[in-house]
Amino acid sequence: LSQDYHTFSPVLVPKLEGKVGDIAVRPVNEAEVCKVAAACAKYRVPLTVRGAGTGNYGQCVPLHGGVILDMTRMQEILWVKPAVARVEAGIKLAAIDKKTREIGWEIRMAPSTYRTATIGGFIAGGSGGIGSVQYGALRDRGNILALRVVTLEDEPRAIELRGDDVQKVNHAWGINGIITEVEIPLGPAYPWAEVIVTFDDFMTAVKFGHALGSADGMIKKSISVFASPIPQYFHALQQYIPQGTHAVFLIIAEPSLELLPGLVQQYGGQITYEKPAQEAGKGTHLAEFTWNHTTLHARTVDTGITYLQSMFPAGKSLQLIEQMYNHFGDEVMMHLEFFRVNGAVLPGGLQ
C-alpha cells in the first residue's frame, strides 16, 4: 500500500526506494476519516492519502512513513440523476458507470485503469484520459462540479468546494485535503464501438487522427496513434496489425461508424479490426492498450522502457510531431493521444 506505478520512472525509482508507511487505515465513512485526520494532526504523524494506487508519479508513496489512508472502502453512490452523480471518493470508476448507465449516462472521462482506479484518486492524481477528446481535461471548468474535503488540523473540518473552488484541491494529490465525496457531470452513454485502423505511413496516421478528432459531428471517446514498432508489444492484437504498420485505435459511437470508412479511405488506411458496442465490453478492451497502459504493455517485454509526456502547440502540432519523429526515430517511439484543449483537438505525446 506504499507503492504506485512510479516504477515507470527511472528518475523516481532511486528517489523513492525503501519508502514505506508505518500503518494502513481503511475508513468506511467520513467520520472515521475525521478521527484519523485529528489523530495525525495532534501527534504530527505524516498522512498519505491513497485510492487504488494506479498513478505513475509517486503520489501514493509516503516520504516520511506514517499513516497510509486507504480510501477504497468508501464506495457509496450517494445519488444519481440525469447528467450528474455524487459518490464517495473510494468508488471505482467502472462501478459508477454501471449505475449511471441504467439511466443512459456515463462518466465523461477516465484513465486507462478505468476498471481499477477510484474517482478520488483520478481527481487527485489524474488529469484526463479516455473521453478527453470530447470533453477536455479534469481541470477544465465544468468537469468537476463539487468536492467535499476533510482538513488536516486538530479539529478537522469537512468543507464543500463548488464551482471554480474545486481547483484548490483538483490534481493536488491529497496534499492539502482529503477528498471524501465527489460530484461530477455525466455525458450521454453512447453505444461505443472499437476500431483499429492501420497505415503504412506514420504521419498519414497522425493526420487521420487529427481529422477525425476535428470532425465535430462524429462522436468519439478515444483516438490513439501508435508508431511502429509499438504495436508489436500488443500481443493480444498482433493478428490485426501487420508488422511495420502504424496503428490508430478508436473508441467511437456506433452512429458515427457509417461515416468512418470514407475518412479512412481518404487517408489511405485499412480498417483491420471492428468490434460492435454489444461486444466491446467483453474480452480485450482497446482502452487498456492506450494512455499509460501502452507503456505497461511495453514494459512486460523490456523493463527499461519508459515515456515522456509532451504537448504540441496548436497551429504547428503536426509539423513538430514530424520533426520529432524524423529526428529520434525508434529511440523515442511515438505514441499520441488526442484531446480537446481550449476548444481545439490536439495531440499529446506519451512517447
TrEMBL record:
- GO BP, one example? lactate catabolic process
Occurrences of domain FAD-binding PCMH-type (ranges): 16-189
- GO function terms (MF aspect): D-lactate dehydrogenase (cytochrome) activity; D-lactate dehydrogenase (NAD+) activity; FAD binding
UniProt cross-references to PROSITE patterns, sorted A to Z: FAD_PCMH (PS51387)
The family database entries (InterPro entries) matched by this protein are listed as:
FAD-bd_PCMH, FAD-bd_PCMH-like_sf, FAD-bd_PCMH_sub2, Oxid_FAD_bind_N
Query: What protein am I looking at?
Result: FAD-binding oxidoreductase
Where does this protein come from, organism-wise? Desmonostoc muscorum LEGE 12446
